[in-house]
Amino acid sequence: MTDARPPYAGTRYPKIKDIKGFTEHIASGWGTDPVPARPVEGAAQAAAEHRRRLSERLPGATVVVHSGTAPTRNDDNTYLFRPDSDFVWLTGCHAEDAVLVMTPRPGGHDARLYLPPPFRPGDTGFFGDANHGELWVGASPGLPEWAEALQLDVAPLNAVDDHGLKGASLKGALTIQTTSETFAADHGLDPSALLDRHLSVLRMVKDAWEIEQMRLAVDATVTGFAAVAREIPRAIGSGAVEGLGERWLQGTFDRHARTHGNGTGYTTIVGSGPNAPVLHWVRCDGPVLPDAALLLDMGVEAESLYTADVTRTLPASGTFSPQQREVHDLVEKAHRAGMAQVRPGVQYLDFHFAAMEVIAQGLHDWGLLPVSVDEALSPEGQQHRRYLACGIGHHLGLDTHDCGHAEYEEYMGADLEPGVVMTVEPGLYFHAHDLTVPPELRGIGVRLEDDLLVTEDGAEVLSAALPIDAAGVEAWTRARLEETP
């Protein structure tokens, strides 16, 4: 036995790659177990049609779309990778550091997907790359598997330069603005607001496959609300047992979303009592108060990456207080007024103005407006927005706030048409330290949010399985509380 020790025994630095015995031994003796690529059923066909639609809008332009890379969380840890939404819409592929190139030809575009080949036995990266080596992260599909699954021409990523990305032939090709500056500069690409705009406009109207994905996301979200409501007693606690608080409910939904989809579409909001009026209360580090209103803003992202976005405000005890119910009733009235404006041929913003009229009138009736309703609703007024500072709806799809790169006229000023999926989400937010409202209203926050599909003759509320009237919300909540193990 020798006293000699290897010069390095850890994993942080790749010096182990220089040890001959180790590298020779780890390079051989592995069986093969091919992993098929499994995009969501129908995704490849839908993506092919999406590329065709983009091709029609940009004849003669070369388009390059990068899937992105996992951002660093801290030190050498990265966040779980989630591909760029435009890339997913055009490919159906969820691979990291992948590149789609659409090259113009007479009558359309040719598409090629460039993917980094897996680091398999025999590759230094197999054991030397902790983020991508198969020894570390498991087996993954190869290029032939992706080509078969996506019905696309697929080539290794290092061949992308052969396509001309560093040469004059593709210099100035359009790329999405989320492409990293380094990648764009290295390949002579031109981040294009025009390309982002076209993609946003195209994504506004969902096709049949996309609508089905939205239904899956919403249905999983509805069952997630039930899972959370059942856990309210554990979040509150009882007697000598300390409650697990908002974090427990946030974690309950996040686990549900990961089990029944890809995960959450955005950071789950759970706000009890004085935290409910905080619009983006994602810290979720407060207690769940037994007599307070509990605001839940939650959405499951399906395996296809289409997301739901639903909000309900529940009475933690099963019954609203008179003040909570009064606020909920006004928000419900505004919600119904807004949803009534969602139908074909109606301008997008009409739902917003309809809901705001109800809110302004209600606040005036309560004596909370320092001006008349007409003055508050005027462009120079907007005093009612103190208690509703955010917008009350948005397009929904692969992104929670979908299609955000469209021009104002194409988004806010457009008429609704069948296939649009959007949210309606009015609320009232009376902060605990807001001295303009009476003490009994302080610390109450209520929001109602539903996901709506514009149909040929109206709208379908995809999230209608969850009640919106106060009595219905109370009954639904009490039923879930009784189901608590």
Automatic annotation (TrEMBL):
* A GO MF label: manganese ion binding
Catalytic activity of the protein: Release of any N-terminal amino acid, including proline, that is linked to proline, even from a dipeptide or tripeptide
The EC number(s) this enzyme carries: 3.4.11.9
The record, for InterPro entries, names: Aminopep_P_N, Creatin/AminoP/Spt16_N, Creatinase/aminopeptidase-like, Pept_M24, X-Pro_dipept-like
Report if keyword Hydrolase is assigned. Answer: yes
Query: What stretch or stretches form a coiled coil here?
Result: none
Enzyme class, top EC level, equals hydrolase
Do you know which SMART domains this protein is assigned to?
AMP_N
Q: Which GO terms describe its cellular component?
A: cytosol
Please list the residue ranges annotated as the Aminopeptidase P N-terminal domain: 45-186
Q: Which GO terms describe its biological process?
A: proteolysis
Entry cofactors: Mn(2+)
Keyword annotations from UniProtKB, A to Z:
Aminopeptidase, Hydrolase, Manganese, Metal-binding, Protease
Say which family it is in: Belongs to the peptidase M24B family.
Supply the name of the protein. Xaa-Pro aminopeptidase
Organism, scientific name: Glycomyces lechevalierae
